[in-house]
Amino acid sequence: QVQLVESGGGLLQAGGSLRLSCAASGRTFSSNVMGWFRQAPGKEREFVAAISRSCIITTYADSVKGRFTISRDNAKNTVYLQMNAVKSEDTAVYYCAAGRNAWKERGGYDDWGQGTQVTVSS
Predict the structure, then answer these.
(1) Mean pLDDT of 59-67
(2) What is the rounded distance in angstroms from the CA atom of residue 101 to the CA atom of residue 117?
(3) What is the C-alpha to C-alpha distance for residues 29 and 75, in angstroms, rounded to an integer?
(4) What's the pLDDT score for residue 55?
(5) Which of 15, 39, 51, 68 sits between 20 and 30 A of 87, alpha carbons compared?
(6) What 3-state DSSP class applies to 30?
(7) DSSP assignment of 65-79, as one string?
(8) Cα 8 to Cα 22: distance, rounded to the nearest angstrom
(9) Residue 38: CB partners within 8 Å, gap ≥ 6?
(10) pLDDT tens-digit map of 12-50
């Protein structure tokens, strides 16, 4: 099992930037694909971005492509989500997740953090 703790959420204006962090402990971090998901009020939790174990491959939801960047530091057991040019529709609780056989699907992830709120004002 991997324990995940997100941080870095907050309130910001449209067009601004924010970096989320997710610190992991427990099962070997580098053996997991890491992902970010988000859930807005009244909506399903949706995929945002994922990064491979080796940091070489990344993938993004179309809604954030070109604005968000996922990265990881396996030496620090941490995954990041850099959010640029944010929009009001990016407002949501953001969750990081870990899974050994995961990619874009929620079901592929075994462990989840508690989430961090991001609110974008227009």
Answers:
(1) 98
(2) 27
(3) 9
(4) 86
(5) 51
(6) helix
(7) TTTEEEEEETTTTEE
(8) 9
(9) 45, 46, 48, 90, 92, 93, 94, 95, 118
(10) 999 999 999 999 997 688 999 999 999 999 999 999 999
